[in-house]
Amino acid sequence: MSGGAEKVVCVTGASGYIASWLVKLLLQRGYTVNASVRDPNDPKKTEHLLMLDGAKERLHLFKADLLEEGSFDSLFDGCEGVFHIASPVDFSANNPQAELIEPAVEGTLNVLRSCAKVSSVKRVVLTSSMAAVVYSGKPLTPDVVVDETWISDPAVCEKSKLWYVLSKTLAEKAAWEFSKENGIDMVAMLPGWVSGPLLQPTLNATLEPLLKLVKGAESVPLIYPAWVDVRDVANAHILAFENPSASGRYCLVERVLQFSEFVKLMRELFPDINLPEKCGDDHPFASSYKVSRERAESLGLKFTPVEVTLKDTFESLRARNLF
Ligand SMILES: NC(=O)c1ccc[n+]([C@@H]2O[C@H](COP(=O)([O-])OP(=O)(O)OC[C@H]3O[C@@H](n4cnc5c(N)ncnc54)[C@H](OP(=O)(O)O)[C@@H]3O)[C@@H](O)[C@H]2O)c1
């Protein structure tokens, strides 16, 4: 145990894929964690958290909803750090405004308004996304290195009807504006496509298409191939909270793979898997670019190689009979 002894922090959306790992690592480091869930009575959302080492002594579950004004006030009281992770992840919303954009943008502002009311909160770590980075309209070619100065353009997202991407872009923009106006010390984490073992019992939106692919999907499902390990994402959030000099945005991508590279790697790992030979030229898997790891590594983050991440992902799915 180290780092967090006697410190209280809050994680929003604690039952989710990334947040569950964050809660696990925070408890391991000795933190007391106030965790927000939408339904504390749903065992599918809470049992895996309550079973974590240290949970009995130091995990407190609270009911909160992003769209309920003031819902987070009591959770943050006495917390030094707030990890705002909750946001809908859905690539096929029927009503993007209500299902994605409102909870992402208004929910983030709701959380930040509660932070501004509570004097104990010293830093907010916001989970944004590479979605809020790469859709700037600039070309993505093999010689391009994307870094934290890139910002997605809402007009580009809207034109391509990328509603999840738009929700993350607008939420991060609103968060920076609010934090600057209200003197909140905020750091934003920008993960790529997150994979790796799951702690929660149900499949989340980014593992689902991967599973479809290895189960014999006829075409390549929507997967953005800028890979990062869920354990590294959780760890990066903690490093950003603990390092007083952390500031601004941090891209979290181990590697971008083209489809042919992904297929080669998967065949080496799992020779019995059938994968499509090609993806379409306009599929995100077709573009090749690099993402700077410099700022993330300056926090002390050591990225897990994508080979290990993918192996652990499918072994975890297999162990849960989901594969
Ligand atoms: N997975 C990725 O590849 C990836 C990449 C970059 C960034 N991110 C970001 O990381 C965060 C977590 O994503 P994830 O992959 O871990 O997805 P996830 O498992 O679906 O987690 C999303 C969490 O948000 C909560 N949530 C959604 N709407 C809410 C609302 N109205 N009020 C309160 N909570 C609400 C969900 O609560 P319920 O459990 O009650 O539904 C869930 O706990 C999101 O901000 C996402 O945009 C994810």
Q: What does it look like?
A:
The structure is a single chain. The protein is α/β, with parallel strands linked by helices and 323 residues long. It has 13 helices and twelve strands. Strands 3-2-1-4-5-7-10 form a seven-stranded parallel sheet, with helices on both faces. A three-stranded mixed sheet has the order 8-9-11. The chain has a two-stranded parallel sheet with strand order 6-12. Helix 5 links the parallel strand 4 and strand 5 (123-127). Helix 1 crosses helix 10 (230-242). The longest helix has 22 residues, at 96-117. The relative contact order is 0.13. Residues 13, 15-19, 38, 45, 65-67, 85-89, 103, 107, 127, 129, 168, 191, 193-194, 204-206 line the site of NADP nicotinamide-adenine-dinucleotide phosphate. Keywords: NADP, Oxidoreductase. GO terms for molecular function: oxidoreductase activity, acting on the CH-OH group of donors, NAD or NADP as acceptor. Residues 9-247 form the NAD-dependent epimerase/dehydratase domain.
